[in-house]
Specification:
- The complex is a heterodimer of chains A (110) and B (124).
- Chain A is mostly beta strands and 110 residues long.
- Chain A has strands at 9-12, 18-23, 34-39, 46-49, 63-68, 71-76, 85-93, 98-101, 105-109.
- Chain B has 124 residues and is an all-beta fold.
- In chain B, a hairpin with a 6-residue loop joins strand 5 and strand 6.
- Chain B is globular and about 40 Å long.
- The termini of chain B are far apart.
- Classes of the chains: A mainly beta (110), B mainly beta (124).
- At the A-B interface, strand 7 and strand 8 of A face strand 5 and strand 10 of B.
């Protein structure tokens, strides 16, 4: 059981906007930044969003992050087939003194 | 090229030991904290351990505390994970990951570069 809660799956058609949620608690999302990682099939994870809503250079502005209270969301607009991947949220947990992850959301582009 | 390359994975029996290594290149290794993150087959990501730039601050997940030891050799641009008393539930792909900052905890703990992983299989 992961400390952060994500839906196991999400889907959308090309061009659509999809959102993936990540729910935590006061010891993690409620008091620290959230990070999002994209894992394409058979590859290592890649940083997608840092400090809740910042994009590393090279990440398209179709990807955006937001945070509210003890929850966070990743939004992907203008969905493309190459966005099909697993997406993970992560945050520092003050109680556990370490980073924690969500269980991951498998995004399917129909 | 900026990269991390893990090695040392393999098949080991329960209760035995194994050491993973991670070779860093393309960046100033001793400026950054480093982590190990694992992913069991078909499962999600789990943080295993982190170490600050000067080895002065180290942390472990509860699931490996007392059995695993993280270390680094800045002269060799290398990160290590000594794994003892291995269990079947330790079986996973182990990723080496670079932190954004010098300390494995605090605001810059997050992973901004990952290796391809080293596979550990634990089976009798």
């Amino acid at each position: 059981q992961s400390v952060l809660t994500q839906p196991p799956s999400a889907s959308g058609t090309p061009g659509q906007r999809v959102t993936i949620s990540c729910s935590g608690s006061s010891s993690n999302i409620g008091s620290n930044y959230v990070y999002w990682y994209q894992q394409l099939p058979g590859t290592a994870p890649k940083l997608l969003i840092y400090r809740s809503n910042q994009r590393p250079s090279g990440v398209p502005d179709r990807f955006s992050g937001s945070i509210s209270g003890t929850s966070s969301s990743l939004a992907i607009s203008g969905l493309r087939s190459e966005d099909e991947a697993d997406y993970y949220c992560a945050a520092w947990d003050d109680s556990l003194s370490g980073p924690v992850f969500g269980g991951g959301t498998k995004l399917t582009v129909l | 090229e900026v990269q991390l390359v893990e090695s040392g994975g393999g098949l080991v029996q329960p209760g035995r030991s194994l050491r993973l290594s991670c070779a860093a290149s393309g960046f100033t290794f001793d400026d950054y904290a480093m982590h190990w993150v694992r992913q069991a087959p078909g499962k999600g990501l789990e943080w295993v351990s982190g170490i600050s730039w000067n080895s002065g601050s180290i942390g472990y997940a509860d699931s490996v505390k007392g059995r695993f030891t993280i270390s680094r050799d800045n002269a060799k641009n290398s990160l290590y994970l000594q794994m003892n008393s291995l269990r079947t539930e330790d079986m996973a792909l182990y990723y080496c990951a670079k932190a954004s900052g010098s300390w494995y905890l605090g605001g810059d703990w997050y992973f901004d570069l990952w290796g391809r992983g080293a596979l550990l299989t634990v089976s009798s």
